[in-house]
């Protein structure tokens, strides 16, 4: 169950009061918990995550378009990708105290899923999907204006950050290198991709993300960390 303390924090810090508390509960319910506790009648967050992914992409795209008019299409796309990738949304979820509120089954709890970045990303998206259903886009925009948009304005998500390009430039300093991103696993709901980065036939790293592009960026970022 979502704690009373968390509900109070949503109210006092973000002025968010859910009209339908079941939506809030659903946003924090993992499928493992829902399967273990069918008597509660609470659905898992997967459909809310699907909706929240689209809601957040639209809201953030609109914000970038209106507030970064000096950037071209490619720069806006890279900036949005940096914001909505697994690392970004997981960081938001962590910062706002989401992990402690997630309802997990025993197996997932023991496996350390509460700190899994892809799960935190999903919950952040599900929360915004629930907020959209409960109060509309205006409420989502309000929440983002207090949380995500200030970080964007502070320059946290540089439009020039493109880990794949950075990695390619690093690896090809001394000549051509064969770089491949191979999909290892694809899950539909919640959407999650795992890719491996193969350089000249050797596996260098892996990455996960809510789509193939995000997973590739994570793999490239991980590889850069190893090489640097």
TrEMBL record:
PROSITE patterns: DS_RBD (PS50137), RNASE_3_1 (PS00517), RNASE_3_2 (PS50142). Pfam families: dsrm (PF00035), Ribonucleas_3_3 (PF14622). One of its GO terms (biological process) is mRNA processing. It catalyses: Endonucleolytic cleavage to 5'-phosphomonoester. Mg(2+) binds at residues 49, 122, 125. It is found in: Cytoplasm. SUPFAM superfamilies: dsRNA-binding domain-like (SSF54768), RNase III domain-like (SSF69065). InterPro entries: dsRBD_dom, RNase_III, RNase_III_dom, RNase_III_sf. Its cofactor is Mg(2+). The active site is at 53, 125. Signal peptide: none annotated. Homodimer. Belongs to the ribonuclease III family. Digests double-stranded RNA. Involved in the processing of primary rRNA transcript to yield the immediate precursors to the large and small rRNAs (23S and 16S). Processes some mRNAs, and tRNAs when they are encoded in the rRNA operon. Processes pre-crRNA and tracrRNA of type II CRISPR loci if present in the organism. This is Ribonuclease 3. It comes from Lactobacillus kimbladii. The lineage of its organism: Bacteria, Bacillati, Bacillota, Bacilli, Lactobacillales.
